[in-house]
Write a structure and sequence with these properties.
Largest sheet: none
Distance between the termini: 36 Å
Shape: extended
Structural class: mainly alpha
Number of strands: 0
Length: 80
Amino acid sequence: MAKAQAAEQKAQDAPDDAARARALREAAHQWDRAAAREAPGKRRTEYEGNAARNRGLADGAAPPESEEGDDEPVDPRLLN
């Protein structure tokens, strides 16, 4: 699990799309390995879902965090 999370972090920090896709595929592979070590149940299902999500992102799917309206500038006076 730690290796998969590290690969996801590497994908976030990747300088270009090709490096990001490689890191996301590596993260998916690590999540698959973690899922294989778990007994059937909630945690295994979660790990398999993480692997599928990372593969989708590597193949060009939009990240789930990107919602319409997120790109609006924030007024700095409202932050405090």
